[in-house]
Amino acid sequence: MHLLLSEELLEVKQLARQIAEEKIKPIREELDKKGEFPHEIIKHMAQSDMFRAFIPEEYDGLGLGISAMSIVTEEFSRVCAGVALGYAGSGLGALPIVLMGTEEQKKKFLPSIASGEKLAAFALTEANAGSDASNIQTTAKKDGDHYILNGTKQFITNGEVASTYIVIANADPIKGIRGLTAFIVEKGTEGFSFGKHENKMGIRASITSELVFDNCKVHKDNIILSEGKGFKVAMKTLDFSRVGVGAQALGIAQGAYEAAVEYAREREQFGKKIINFQLIQAMLADMAIKIEAARALTYTGMAYIDGNGNDYARVGAMVKTFCSDVAMEVTTNAVQVLGGYGYMKEYPVEKMMRDAKITQIYEGTNQIQRLVIAKEIIKRGAEITDMY
């Protein structure tokens, strides 16, 4: 029994760990080296119903919510955060439809995402619109029952491998963020192509690329909510999904900690195992404490969101910020425990340290998340710490 997980979620967690150990771990080094997307592993995830976990039951899913997406992401990230992102990125792309799509949109797009037949992606970021989402330059000009999209999206997870994209474009630039509109765009739509494939420091098994829109024609039925509601769609999606980023960071930290403990048990210096040195013990103890604190916050946060808590922006910001900071600290110290070997690519902690860094940056930098939390403190005072 786990205090914070149902029997169903425990089964999902166990299956995800099995996939991670048997399918991902043996080839993670090769995927990282080549920067190669794990198509075959994604197929296996689909066959194992991993993508169904976060899709509602009425659209061929299992209806286990953000909690399921988070714990699967955690288990995959424990072995390889890049592979995990192929899964989590599809969850991110599906979220706007799950949360705010029309019944027709849900019926049309969610079953194929649930089966894993199609991956999804979320396209918000641009060259001049990162933390400042209001500066989006991609335009959507109304043309009868359609909109004509022009512009370029940057740093898009699952960029070239997804089939269903949520694209935030500006339908009325004069209105600023009130002109932003969320469109569902399908791969193969005329005028929609792919640009630069990014060469990243970490999460290299995840495809990150540009999306290019050149007079791309999208029907008005593919708008989520309505024209001018794109900023709301984007922010609500990210508020929910940040718990998943926290879970990814938690998994990375767990994997690095396990590698450090294993190495410390085997490595001898000055005639004894280095795990017997008190300074090493203190480092491992601090890792363990912070990982368990991160796990408690993540599991509580995802349960709160799935339980229809109405303060998900604050909760998501807390989970994402704390867990990603823990991941960066734990992976850095894991490299230190391994010493020179930790710096070598033949040991996994070097990769985990590179993978951890992005969790402090994407889906809203930790500096921005602290501003979100601070705003709630100003508005509500000390009570913002109560999630129960």
Structure description:
- The chain has about 400 residues and is of the alpha+beta class.
- The chain has 3 domains: about 5-120, Butyryl-Coa Dehydrogenase, subunit A, domain 1; about 120-230, Butyryl-CoA Dehydrogenase, subunit A, domain 2, CATH 2.40.110.10; about 230-380, Butyryl-CoA Dehydrogenase, subunit A, domain 3, CATH 1.20.140.
- The chain is about 50% helix and about 15% strand.
- The chain is built from 11 helices and 10 strands.
- The strands form 3 sheets. It has a 4-stranded mixed β-sheet.
- A hairpin with a 2-residue loop joins strand 2 and strand 3 (about 145-155).
- Helix 8 (about 280-305) runs antiparallel to helix 9 (about 310-340) and helix 9 (about 310-340) packs across helix 11.
- The longest helix is centred in the middle third of the chain and has 37 residues, at about 230-265.
- It is globular and about 80 Å long.
- The chain starts with 6 loop residues before the first helix and ends in an 8-residue tail after the last helix.
- About 50% of the residues are buried.
- The mean pLDDT is about 95.
Quick summary of this structure?
51% of the residues lie in helices and 15% in strands.
CATH class of the largest domain: Mainly Alpha
Strand line-up of the largest beta sheet: 1-4-5-8
Oligomer class:
single chain
The tally of beta strands, per DSSP, is 10
| Average pLDDT taken over every residue | 95
**Rg measurement, Å:** 21 Å
Helix/strand layout:
Layout: H1 7-24, H2 28-34, H3 39-47, H4 65-77, H5 81-100, H6 103-114, E1 120-123, E2 139-143, E3 146-157, E4 164-170, E5 180-186, E6 192-197, E7 208-219, E8 223-224, H7 230-266, E9 268-269, E10 272-273, H8 278-306, H9 312-338, H10 348-359, H11 366-380
Parallel strand pairs: 1-4
Antiparallel strand pairs: 2-3, 3-7, 4-5, 5-8, 6-7, 9-10
Helix pairs in contact: 1-4, 4-5, 4-7, 4-8, 5-6, 5-7, 7-8, 7-9, 7-10, 8-9, 9-10, 9-11
